[in-house]
């Protein structure tokens, strides 16, 4: 019956919600609450009232009043009524509560006074009091006094839950009192309660001396004080500013009690006050409290590692808040506090030093503002007697300089970042304010490494000074002194710092100071060469190059380009013409200068090279450089940038022909920077000027075309007098095409048409390099000039279609670029021919995804996705995208495996990119794709496996479930195919399915004969999880950070990951799997596995990465033996790393140092070499006790050292043995010890043939070992003066002499 009543009451409003929430609970208090709710619901039904919050409130108050007057009173019923009241009172209209506030508070206070020991009653009662008080008339404090004081009393209750609830209620009441007349008296009530508790514990002399603080921490009064401090942590931020001002001095004095628990509560309370954005903070009292805390913690003898870091963090946050409220008060207190915290850097505890340094750095960054700096500069500029006392910023700078003294030498690594932050904030003013600091930093550089262990931080501080004041002012304080007779005494160590941190400098400074210095050093170099001092001359040459290396940094946002670029232009031109080693630096500087001004002017940068340059420049800006960049940004307005570009463009008539000549004289691999510089200058030059140069280039291009068309014998006769023996008419033609390409951005419409007309015939040229240049020209024209593309789109498309059949492989990437702009143009314009055009070109694009050249392949994928995005934006129903998808789908009907494989790869790329729009097509696509797994063509199988990977990555587990049977069955067809390396690929896909769908789902569809694979995967997963748990226990924080970084980021498309074709991609997994299953087998089987693995590694080392196939202007010519050898050797060096460095020590896996007693480093060898050497050692073992195999005359030795035949040389090196003859006791038995030598020992190199699977080789190795024991037994106690291998060689020498 009870449950039936509950079901009926569920439909009620307030009561029904309570019943619905607690009806299934078996807790007694919840059953009582449900009973009260049902009773009140029945009462309201009898009175024909709805169970609204107001009606429930009235009924509950009536029930509570009757319950209080009942004797004896049922405590459980009272608790249930108060709990019910607390759940509905928040929903009662404030007007109703205000009208009944007096009676309601009276009843609630009776409950709190009578049931003070029952936490279950007190908590909801306090919540009701809070709600009624905040809804009452807040203009009169007197009726609310008693209720507020009762809540304050419970803030120090011994029961934690009651105490926490009371503190929350008091803070919410104070928050509701704000902007009302009761706010001030309520805050005063909190202060009075706090002071009365302190006086009862400490006495009336609070704040005078420290003698009164001898209080036992365990007394009741001390506990109440701690609880009150805990309440203040949440209450103080919502109190009035006047009341907070009365409490703060008391809290600052209480810190001097030197009791950890009390101090920590006080620090947390003030810290929460400082970080609360809505708190009312009395500025003077707050500043004084912070100053008191800083002085106390810096002056205390024993510094607590738990308290001091908390105090420094409080001071940091407090001064940041103080600076936002009143900067003048902050400045007046900052110097004292800064000096006090600086003293903590001399502490021994690392935590204190780190906290103090972090506090100082943040104080500098947040509290040293422009007004403070200007005040200091104004005082410095006054005459001597009128300067007055030092300004606050001068005191801060002096304190920062003192941190570089020897008393803080152990904390220099923490102090130097503070100095760097001060340079960043002061900016150019640091030239006047921190001159002494810069000199001190220079002195620290001269310290030896054992005294200066933080040189990296020192260089960062010097770099911050360079970025702040500029190189000119910096070098006035700390000059380079490179005119000294001895360069070792100069400060050439500053040059790398200057190069990294210069920004916003003046070109005039480079022209007037650094260039003359470089000229003097160059003359000095020539003089030293004449005097026969090549080392000193080389040093001067290195200094000259280092000075010129500053040019790109000087051109990093210079402030005087518009006025002083002319002072530098002539010198740059001369250096370009005469100094080949400086051309790269000059080109980089000019490109940076032009690019940054174009960005400031607001030009649109779309070129890949430009965007890459912007990214590189941005990556170089960090820390101090960013701050300097922000200061320079105000100068770089669009108007200033335009003036700078005009100044540079004024010298284009001089630079362009000079660059052309240098370009023509350089080999192809050194023309990249020159071409980029020509393009940059042409982009800002006058069109007529560029056109004039362009016409001259086109004339030379026309002549080169004529020369290329002549018969070969006439070409050869014409090249007799050529300056470059390797230059041909075709190469000259390509050079002039490159020059014309560089000028595209500065050409007008007529010149562009001329360039296009010259490029179209080159598309049909037989030379692949010429085609490549022609396609680059057409793609660049289409990219840079949309008007040209709009006018001649049909003509360009026709030219591209006509040249398809003769397109060279090296030009296909740039052809795809041209097709990209054409197709996207038609698609975005909504032309009706777009579908026909795409259908015509789709086969070419799809086949390009199978190109060997990585860039061509990526270009094809990018084109597919670009077409998809362009189709996607045309309409909202995705019909265009689906039409494009179906075009690719139709290519699955191709007649060649190559086309089918490319179509599958293209579909995978589209599904990966547009998974949300194309996932619904997978159920129709996947069965057809899985049928292709029955094909025997490896290329098709590889593409289908890649498509399956994409499907797993993009479909959810629920969507994958229906396809699991077909997927698993199709994959298992290739699970045993190790010949084509599909076994590991299938295993990887099954592992992905297990991770996505779970082991149980895969087990259901896995054929029984392949269940061993799942067992292996499960064991491997368990081992990995066990290893991860162990790693997590060792370094939990690092592991969690890594996990978040790897899972939060969506992976980008990776062709190599999806369609991996690496021959040894499965070697590791397969090897580990085999190793785990064959751990108990014989060593011979393990060695066979190792041997096969070494073969794979050897094959991999002889294969070129795909990045090497498309380096330079032309792909790698595999028929060119010399170039192929060079590429293979570079790959070999890359794999070997630093193994060729004979000075590097070798270490074993456990960290032991490996010493090769022969003096030769051991190198990796192939299996064949290892076997040969092992055979030699086994055969050579016989010579330790008998004859040497020299009958065939293959070896010839002299004095025990081989001089002929590599096998004999290996045998002598690897057969080294030592029988310990130096320690033989000549007078008796046993061994003897000798001073300065090791303890007695003998050495025998273990023969790996002892583990060979062939019994004959193992026997040979054992014979060699037994011969040593025999030799040792024969010489025991005798005279043996030489190692056994020397004896063997001597025996061989005797045998030769006997034969003679």
UniProtKB/TrEMBL annotation:
It is found in: Nucleus. Residues 1223-1240 have a biased composition (Basic and acidic residues). Signal peptide: none annotated. Residues 1019-1029, 1093-1102, 1289-1300 have a biased composition (Basic residues). Residues 1059-1071, 1107-1117 have a biased composition (Acidic residues). Residues 347-664 form the RRP12 HEAT domain. Residues 1074-1091 have a biased composition (Polar residues). Keywords: Nucleus. Belongs to the RRP12 family. Residues 6-280 form the RRP12 N-terminal HEAT domain. Residues 1019-1240, 1254-1300 are annotated as: Disordered. One of its GO terms (cellular component) is nucleus. Residues 1272-1282 have a biased composition (Low complexity). This is Ribosomal RNA-processing protein 12-like conserved domain-containing protein.
